[in-house]
Amino acid sequence: MQDWQQIQRALKQHWGYERLRPPQDQVIQALLDKRDALVVLPTGFGKSLCFQLVALLQTGVTLVVSPLIALMEDQVQDLWKRKLPAACLHSELDPALRKRVLKALEENRLRLLYLGPETLFSPPVWQRLQQPQVQINGLIVDEAHTLVHWGGSFRPDYRRLGLLRPALAPVKPSFPIAAFTATADPQTCSRLSQILELRDPECIRADPLRANISLNVAIAWSPADRRRRLLRFLGENPGSGLVYVRTRRDGEELAEWLGRQNLKTATYHGGLEAGSRRRLERAWLQGELRFLVCTNAFGMGINKPDVRWVLHFHPPPSLMDYLQEVGRGGRDGGPCRALMLVSEPTGLLDPSDRRRQAYFYSQQERLQARARHLLQTLPQQGSYADLPPGEARVALGLLQEMGCLRWPDPFHFQVLHRRWQPLRREDPWQGMEALIHARGCRWQAILPYFGYPYFGYPGEQPGLPCGTCDRCRLSR
User: Tell me: the pLDDT tens digits for 17-54?
Assistant: First the structure.
């Protein structure tokens, strides 16, 4: 085990920090002790530094599963600037560079390797991970909430991450698994532990309260009123910001309309080709674009400290999405104004929010129906690779969570029974409704959803209001 003097020296040498901030020391100690960990800390708490620092002080490689190529590349470039042995592997990597990274992995010259779950289980990587000389120090699942949410929708390979450790057990010493995220309610934490097969994990959490972010909700009485409120907000709030919408189509239509209002912007969504996404990210980070119109595909792990406002043109489907997105603002500790526009309560004048939520429910029902059909047609034993990408693999993950099948290894499944028992989960929209209709402090409405019945700062009386949201300002 490394002593804390070595940790402090490495922290100062490579990151320029004199000391860690709580609870970074707890996280680092758990990783050094080779314990599984579940780390839920708000944006800006330095989660990445914890596992990067520990990986640097060990021999062998720490695998970091990350959901976005941009996020991988940003972190690796930052590590390169610090002259640290890190690399990433993804589908858009130059073939020559991919070959060099694989060779470095084979020769134990990397300390951190960033990759997506699909790449982790690809033959070139999997073959090298099984080689006896390749030392694996740990598996880090970064932005781990995506394992539950994306793994249940369009990234089914996330469901196989818990199979990595037992599959390598015959050829590798056991290694710890740690999940890192900024937002996870108790239900998500439980599902993360289950899917990743965490062993008595050390749970390190901090409440998500960030009182420098002023939470505001306003009713849009019609589609035209929603756009008028957006224009007024843009005029009243200078500085860099983000406008969040629910779908790609929403984003393209809104960005086009804003362009006709002589406002320079662009839309960002997961359907753009990689080069276009990188150009938009750079334009926003460098101030060439004051704001972007984006779906939830944008912002994860992007470090722009001076985001002064975040506007939700439509409410997101869950409080986890909401906190992730408003959390892009005020990373420097400065003020950030967050405004969410919602349809009027009856839905008669503007039914758009209800329609979007109904579409979300219909997608869930469609997936359940697909899983039910698949359960009756699957062979008793089968190969993951034989299933077509898309809904079939997503439905397979749902069946796994229901206990209908098991995985002898990450590449083959075995049906245990064919009894249909649909999963019952809490409706994530209930948390959003509590926030939207809150009569008191907005933050006070959010925190119980994440397992914090009240909040307060050290030495203060518990349950104090944030003082910055629209409800708190109104009560003054």
Answer: 888 888 999 999 999 999 999 999 987 788 999 999 99
Q: What is the dihedral of CA 148, 151, 157, 162, to 10 degrees?
A: 20
Let me know the angle formed at the C-alpha of 325 by 64 and 152, rounded to the nearest 5 degrees: 55
Q: List, as one string, the DSSP characters of 405-416.
A: EEEEETTEEEE-
DSSP labels for 158-209?
GGGGGGHHHHHTTTS----EEEEES---HHHHHHHHHHHT-SSPEEEE----
- The sign one gets for the Cα dihedral 315, 205, 25, 35 is negative
Span 252-258, average pLDDT: 97
Q: Is the Cα dihedral 271, 274, 280, 282 positive or negative?
A: positive
| CB of 237 closer than 8 Å to CB of 308 | yes
Question: What one-letter code names the amino acid at 201?
Answer: P
pLDDT tens, residue by residue, 266-316:
999 988 887 898 899 889 999 999 999 999 888 776 779 999 999 999 999
User: From CA 215, how far away is CA 310, in angstroms rounded?
Assistant: 10
CA quadruple 63, 64, 70, 71: dihedral positive or negative? negative
Cα separation of 245 and 254, whole Å? 9
The Cα–Cα gap between 332 and 461 comes to 26
Q: Name the nearest CA neighbour of 78 among 37, 34, 31, 46.
A: 46
Angle CA 311–282–300, to nearest 5: 50
> Which residues have a Cβ under 8 Å from the Cβ of 435 and sit 6 or more positions away?
215, 217, 319, 322, 442, 445, 446
What does the block give as tokens for 372? 């039910």
Half-sphere exposure of 175 (CA within 13 A, CB side): 27
Rounded to whole angstroms, the maximal C-alpha distance in the chain is: 66
Tokens of 81: 């600037």
Q: pTM of the full predicted structure? A: 0.89
pLDDT in tens, 158-198: 889 999 999 999 999 999 999 999 888 888 899 899 999 99
CA 161 to chain centre: 16
In this structure, are residues 283 and 213 in contact, taking their beta carbons and an 8 Å threshold? no
Alpha carbon distance 166, 153 (integer Å):
25
pLDDT of residue 151: 52
Between CA 238 and CA 134 the distance in angstroms is: 51
Strand 412-415 versus strand 405-409 pairing type: antiparallel
Average pLDDT rounded to a whole number, residues 400-429:
89
* Among the listed residues 150, 134, 161, the one whose alpha carbon sits nearest the alpha carbon of residue 65: 161
Q: Amino acid identity of 164?
A: L
Residue 461 has which token pair? 């009386």
